[in-house]
Structures are given as C-alpha cells and as structure tokens.
Specification:
By secondary structure, the chain is mainly beta. It is built from three helices and 51 strands. It has a six-stranded mixed β-sheet, with no helix packed on it.
Length: 732
C-alpha cells in the first residue's frame, strides 16, 4: 500500500505534477499550502497578487471583494474583517448570540458554559481558557484534568466522577484477592491431583509448586468452576472481522460480502472492482477531491462562501453541500460541479444553521439538521417538497446519516444532555442509542456493510463505534493530538477517515483497532464534512414509494420510508407540509384541524325531531357509500374504499317517503309487543296469591309471595323449596 501512495501517474492538463509523481490541482500551486507531500507545489513561488475583483488578505490569500467586511472572517488570518480594513463599511450581518448557558468565544463561536476554564481548548481561538485560575485541591482530594476537585476515595472506584472521566484513567481493573497457603501435607496431596482424572480439568491440568490449575486450548476459556472449558465466541467482539464473522468450535472464520474479496496480504475485505475510493471534503471556501492513495488531489468546487456539510447521491453522481453563511443547501452534477452556473439551490429559505445533511439515494430525499431552529427536516432532492420531521427534545443537533435500505436515520446532539439518536426516515420509532460517556459528539457515519455507527467526540477526543441497535460499544482512538477537534468522518473497507479543524488536516486509521494513523492532507482552512465515493458505498435498494400504487406511493405530498422493524412493518407513510395535516385516508392533506382523530357523531338535525338517516360522502373516492345506522341513531358513518371509514360525515337531505316506510312498520311492531306484554302481566297477577304474616321472633311483619301453579291431574302443587309453617300464622 505504501508503494501505491506515491506512485507516479499521468496528470491531466489542469493538474500539477509534484516532484514525487503526485497530481494536484493547478489552483493549489503557490497558494501558501503544501499540497504535495514533498512541498514541491510551493517551491520557487513569487509573491502572490490578487485581481481587481479580489481582496488580498494580510497573509497574501485572495478572497472575493464582496466577502470583505460582511461579518464573516473569510481570510485565514481574519484580516478581511479587521476594523482598519472596514472603515465606513458596516457588516451586512450581525453575529448570532449564544444561549444563556453557553460561553461565547472571542471569534463568535458558542460552547457550553461549563467548558469555560476546564483546561480544554474548546474555542478554536482558545479564548475559553483565557484568564483562568484553577483551584488548589486539598491533600486528600483528587484533581481532575479540568481542575475540579473530588474526594480522593472516588478515584478508580469504577464510577466516573470527573466530567472528563480523568478519575478513572490509568486504573488497575484486575480482581484483587488473597490466597491462603495450604500446609505441606495438603500441597503434596494436591500435586498428585493431575494424575487422578486429570484433576477434573476438561482440557489441561497443570501442576504448580503449590497446587495445580486447569487451562484450556486456544479458542476456549475457563468456566466459573475453574475446571471446565467453553468455546469463546470471537464474533461477539466488535470488528473481529472486517465484514462477516462465523464462530467455530475453538476458532472463527472471516468472510466478505458480495462485491468484496479477501486481500491476501492484509487478510481484510477489499472491493473487487469499481472506481478508486475517493474522498470529498469541504475546506471552507471550496470542496476538494482526493483519492485515498493520494495519487490525485484537486479542487472540485471553488469560490464557496462557507461550505460546511456535504453528502452525495452516488448512483446519480450528484453532490450536495450546505453554506452556513448563505443559509442555503445546493446541489450539482459531479462532472460540472466546478462551474457555478450548474449549481442548483435545493433549500433557499427557512433554515439558519444547516450543519449536517444526509441524502437518501434510494427514495430521493435529503435530510438536514438545524442547530439554531433545533429541528431535523426532510425534502425531496430537488427541494420542491419539504417538511420539518422532528422538533421535540433537540438542543444542538449536528451531524446526520441515513440507512435507506432499512429506513433509519441517526444523528448527534451536543446539547446539555449530549446523545446519539435513531429514528425511522419518517421520524417515527425514535430512540436514544448513546447517552453516557459522551460530551461533544460531532460527526457520525454508518458502515452499511457491518451495520455499525462511528462518531467522533471533540471534547473527549475520542473516535468510537457502536452497533445500530446500541450494542457492542467500542472506543477506537483516544488521542488529544490526533483528535484535537474532529468534526466529521467516513468509513470504507478497513479504514476510517476524519477531518480535524484544530490540526487543519485529514487523517485515516484502521477502523477496527485505531492503529496506523496517517495524515492524508494538511494546511487546510477549516475542513469540516467528509464523504467517500465508491460504487459499493451506496447499495441499490427498493423504493417502496414507486411500487404498485404508482409514483409517490399514492401520497399527495411526501412519501417517506417507514423503519423496517420486522416483516410486518409498513413500507412507507405519507406526510404533509408543515401548515397542513393528514386527511382521513392518510394519503391526502387538509388544512386546519387534524382530521385523523376518531370518528365523532354527526350533529343532530335541528329542523325536525324525527329520526333520519345520514350518509357520508367523499369526493375523491370511486366506491359508492353504503349507509349504516346505529340502533339509537347517535353515530352514523359510511364505509368507503373497502373497510376504511370516512370521517366527518355530511348529512343527506331528508327523504319523507323513505322515512314513512321505515317508521310505520316500527310503530305497528311496537303496539303488538306492548299488547302482548300487557296480556302476560295481567295473567301473572291473576294467578298469584299473597300471604301476610307476622314473625313472632323478630316482631317484624314480612310479605312474601307464594305462587300456586295449576296441575291438571293433581290439583294444586306448591313449589318445592318454599315452605310455610302454619304455627307461625296468626289466625286471630
């Protein structure tokens, strides 16, 4: 791999060939940054001069004149906003204030107020650590790395008490135990235990100077009884294999997914064919392109105001980016992205801080976060339809990534309660995946092949991974040097790539172990988002919204894929614009009050008190409405489209002939039933005898009924369980 990195190649006319054979964009030559690894692009460079339409920064960098004195520091040294260069020119924009619980850095950035004077440089200008005085801890206290004092007994108690977790670093976690020494007689007997029944060991029995112990063959571990052995499931450990892991008795086997093959040297899975893996990353005023072997390094999109977030639709060869200063999201075809005439405005209003974007390449949607509005939104990739999906319990959402094969999305939130969350692409089934040992989560990316999430934490200086269901969390890199302030990352094959704004560089490392950290690009100007382009990066999936129901799934507005939790899960749900709600059929949109609530009884007619029949009608249905009424007439609705019910029924006009035919038979039947009831009651009273008597014990007069039933053969017969004693009857 090292030989490939500096391999010479034929450069294109718009590229400069470094002395070591690398190809970089001619725009990188003599720009003050060493883009060739041998610095040959900056050798023998004259002092730069800017055109009449550009502003020359104090460090000789040229930026468009319209960028000067606009409230944004576009020069690397900020000289385009210096007061002496902006005399008589007021900034066109005002700086957005920070939250009440935030600290505002001198350069305008906002960080948590609790991060002030904690010995960590959280502001890019380090102003959060200016004029700080740290407390002096008592002799029996432990001082955390951020200066906070805790009781000394809390150090290494396996419970983090410092905000930076420094009280649990470099702690011995092994079990402590003492062992009583047996007598010589007992030792002699123990030494012979391995000769009898292998000492009870299922694998190996080892005689020691004092006693014996059992051990297991490779791939097995001792059970709690310290004698029997059990197979080790190596596949339960995250990243044992680069892709598929199969556990075997005492061993395991690594395999590769379709489109990949085992590299005979590294024993990892490599793409069988396709394009050369290429990195695309934002560099404030531009988007750059670099192959992972560094054989090609060019500027793809120049002259951007403040490019922050980035993503791609690789099957369609489209690139999307957000501009934080212009508060817009753009797109372009890859092959013409360098020409601003081919840039399309996807979202041009209603956003404040689009710091994370993610493209659903299967269903044709784009998702973005807004840390100022505290929302997550979705739109079609052309921007014609959009909707705010999530507004609750969001503080400072940052990065976002999607899985349109299983219909999930994942995002980071670095608010007071920092977390990583997951939900369906329709905003449903939301759940928090990471809530502990997390402080400033920035970039997040998904390894589609292994279904693992990777993220960077700029406060804890870590790069970690976790399963998409919150299982098998693993810390790969903990380094304040290589992860000073990481912002974004991406993964492919066995490598992970990330940007760091403090180091102004792009790095890569082994995504399983965190080893082999390599710097790929340096001397950058605020690098933020990064994506990797390859044919296997975005697998082809099924768009359920273009199935048997036709285009857009039969939805009037947006068709959003639903999370695939099990085989019974719906494939998609329909969504409406923010100012509208779903209609009763869950496909059309209506204005005003939500129409999806349970059916309510229709209002009673005021013109006549007689019973009426109402019918529900709907304009967009093709099936006829069948009238159904309840017995008491309180709820009347109609069935439409099979077994669906139409809400908010409308009353039909009264039909007097129909009402007459219905009411008269009911009256006749009522009279017949009333007459029959009267005859039966009269007969019952006539054949009932009543006896009155006084109870001599309680002096209480009671009244009971004795029914004497006639029997044609035996005269009168008294009912069996009802007896009256004549002694209790007062005949006087």
């Amino acid at each position: 791999a090292a030989n490939r990195l500096d391999a010479a190649k034929q450069c294109t006319p718009d590229q400069f060939q470094c002395t070591n054979g690398q190809c970089v964009s001619t725009a990188f030559v003599c720009d003050g940054d060493s883009d060739c690894s041998d610095d040959s692009d900056e050798a023998s460079c004259p002092k730069p001069t800017c055109s009449s339409s550009s502003f020359q920064c104090n460090d000789s960098v040229c930026v468009p004149t319209q960028w000067s004195c606009d409230g944004d520091a576009d020069c690397p040294d900020g000289s385009d906003e210096w007061p002496q260069n902006c005399v008589g020119r007021l900034p066109e924009k005002t700086q957005v204030g920070c939250g009440v619980h935030d600290f505002q850095c001198e350069n305008g950035e906002c960080v948590h107020g609790t991060w002030r004077c904690d010995r960590g440089n959280d502001c890019s200008d380090h102003s959060d650590e200016f004029n700080c005085s740290l407390p002096t801890c008592l002799p029996d206290e432990f001082q955390c790395n951020d200066g906070i004092c805790i009781h000394g007994g809390r150090q290494c108690d396996r419970v983090p008490d410092c905000r930076d977790l420094s009280d649990e670093i470099d702690c011995h976690t092994g079990d402590r135990f003492t062992r009583a020494w047996p007598s010589r007689l007992f030792c002699a007997a123990v030494r012979k235990m391995c000769l009898t029944g292998n000492g009870g060991c299922s694998h190996s029995c080892n005689n020691l100077k004092v006693g014996y112990n059992c051990s297991c063959h490779p791939g097995y571990s001792l059970n709690t009884d310290k004698k029997t052995c059990a197979d080790i499931d190596e596949c339960a450990e995250a990243d044992t294999c680069t892709q598929t892991c199969t556990n075997l008795p005492g061993s395991y086997k690594c395999e590769c997914k379709k489109g990949y093959q085992v590299d005979p040297v590294s024993k990892t899975c490599r793409a069988e064919s396709g394009t050369i893996p290429t990195l695309y990353f934002t560099n404030r005023h531009e988007v750059r392109k670099m192959t992972v072997d560094r054989s090609e390094y060019v500027r793809l999109i120049p002259q951007l105001k403040n490019a922050v977030a980035l993503d791609m639709d690789m099957p369609k060869k489209m690139i999307f980016w957000s501009d934080l200063s212009l508060k817009k999201i753009y797109s372009s075809k890859l092959d013409v992205a360098g020409n601003s005439h081919y840039h399309s405005e996807v979202i041009g209003s209603g956003i404040e801080a689009p710091e994370g974007i993610a493209v659903d390449w299967i269903h044709g949607n784009i998702y973005w976060t807004d840390s100022v509005l505290k929302t997550i939104s979705v739109a079609t990739t052309d921007g014609s339809k959009r909707k705010i999906l999530i507004t609750e319990d969001l503080e400072k959402p940052r990065a976002i990534t999607v899985d349109p094969v299983n219909n999930f999305m994942y995002w980071t939130d670095w608010g007071d309660e920092a977390k990583i969350e997951k939900s369906g692409l329709n905003g449903g089934d939301r759940v928090a995946l990471v809530t502990d040992n997390i402080m400033w989560p920035n970039g997040i990316t998904l390894d589609m092949v292994n279904q693992r999430l990777y993220w960077v934490d700029s406060k804890m200086h870590t790069l970690s991974s976790i399963g998409v269901n919150g299982e098998s969390r693993h810390s790969l890199i903990v380094s304040e040097d290589k992860l000073a302030h990481p912002l974004s990352l991406t993964v492919f094959e066995d490598r992970v790539f990330w940007t760091d704004i403090t180091s102004s560089a792009v790095f890569s490392a082994d995504r399983r172990t965190g080893n082999d950290i390599t710097q790929l690009a340096a001397d950058l100007d605020h690098p933020e988002d990064i994506v990797l382009y390859h044919d296997l990066k975005q697998p082809i999936g099924i768009n359920s919204c273009t199935g048997s129901r036709g285009e857009n799934g039969g939805c009037e507005f947006l068709c959003l894929p639903a999370p695939q939790i099990n085989h019974r899960s719906p494939k998609y749900t329909c969504a409406c614009p923010d100012h509208m709600t779903m209609g009763s059929r869950k496909r059309t949109c209506v204005t005003g009050k939500n129409q999806t609530s349970p059916l309510l009884p229709p209002k009673a007619p005021t013109a006549a008190p007689t019973a009426t029949t109402t019918a529900a009608t709907k304009k967009d249905t093709t099936t006829s409405a069948s009238q159904q009424g309840t017995q008491d007439g309180s709820i009347v609705f109609s069935a439409v489209s099979g077994n669906r019910l139409a809400a908010s029924p409308e009353e039909a006009h009264l039909s007097h002939p129909v009402a007459l035919y219905v009411v008269l038979p009911i009256l006749v039947m009522s009279l017949l039933v009333f007459g029959a009831m009267w005859v039966w009651r009269h007969w019952r009273l006539k054949n009932t005898n009543t006896i009155h008597f006084d109870n001599p014990v309680y002096q209480k007069t009671t009244e009971d009924e004795m029914h004497i039933c006639r029997n044609g053969s035996e005269g009168y017969v008294y009912p069996q369980r009802q007896m009256v004693s004549m002694d209790d009857i007062d005949v006087a």
